[in-house]
Amino acid sequence: MKRYLPFVIVVGVALVTFGSGAMLYRTKHEQLQAIPEDKALSANSGSGSPHIRGNPNAQVTLEEFGDFQCPPCGSFAGFAEELLKEYDSRLRIVFRHFPLTAHEHAREASLAAEAAGIQGRFWEMHDLLYREQATWSKAPNARELFESYAGTIGLNVDQFKKDMDGEQARARVDSDHARAESLEIKVTPSLYINGQPVDAKDKNPEGVRAAINAALAGKPHA
Amino acid sequence: MTVSRFRTILYTVVAIVAVAGLADATYLAVQSLTGETLSCGGSPDCFRVLGSSYAKVGGVPVALLGAFAYFCIFAFATFAAFGYVRARMFLILTIGAMFLATLWFLYVQAFLLHAYCRYCLFSAALTFLITGLLIAVPPAERRSGK
Fold it and tell me: Which of A46, A94, B65, B133 could crosslink A63 through cysteines, CB 3.0-4.6 Å?
């Protein structure tokens, strides 16, 4: 019996490892639900109209739940610009705030973007925040930098400061956050194409392009 | 305590430590396979390391290779504890390769990514511990039959 014991132990550990790995995979595999009809963009889907980039009547809508302090969201922002050029009038991109609590300045950055949005410069601030992410993320007082960014993109800085603390910006960020939570989103960026979630493993240029192409072809993305 | 018994105990400890490494590497491999390392949501530094280009070799997650290596260490240490002489040689070769790989990944985290993944550091500590335990194993006497 002792002769076979090491084989039994090794095979046993292999089976336990494989089994627990498979169970963990099933548990962790993000199973996001599609956006229900009553929460679609055409319905009242948040506080005010959503931030849309691209053709507002485009065939394909890419809705992103992002966090300004999240590096993959920053990478995605650059890729999103490429997508808009590539798909031109067929694509529109909607940005939703989902600042993660783990990121110290993420909520403040969202408020800064909203305050800029009140003066009609949401996307300019969005781009600047992602471009300068590495700088303000590590700054002890990120707000001072946000105020300097407001000046850079030509905002009325005094108004910007008031709006950052105002109810309108807060309500907008909270509304987007609530929408994310209702969809059981846990990570950023979380992407939806025409209301269908993009699988975590497809959150790369090839995967996103394939999902957009499938939506253009009117097929559900696998 | 006889030398042979001491050796058996050390190989058993190596096998147990390897199981801890196997669990750690399996967890990271699952994270990589589910795409979780491409998103923010967990530890910021972990996704910086695990989502980097250094975390894959030819499209295969390094964590998956690590899990396989820890499993090999576990298997070889188990056989060595039962007196299989050849298993000791394979064990030394595997842990040697893992030791070098660990040094490389520590360098990557410290000097290229400037971010540390605590799961990777735990794995590095286990690899160093196993290396130390193997160095402490007294040289094997020649045996026949196994």
Answer: A94
ipTM confidence score: 0.84
B26 closest CA partner among B58, B71, B57? B71
Q: Which DSSP symbol is given to A188?
A: B
Q: Determine the residue of chain B that is closest to A204 in CA distance.
A: B38
As a whole number of angstroms, the longest Cα–Cα distance in chain B is 55
pTM score, whole prediction: 0.69
Burial class (CB in 10 A: 0-12, 13-18, 19+), B8: middle
B77 Cα to chain A: minimum distance (Å): 10
C-beta separation of B69 from B97 below 8 A: yes
> Among candidates B118, B92, B75, which has minimal Cα distance to A17?
B75
- Residue in the block written with tokens 């390769």: B97
Whether residue B71 and residue A13 make contact (CB cut-off 8 A), yes or no, is yes
Within 10 angstroms of residue B67's Cβ, the number of other Cβ atoms is 24
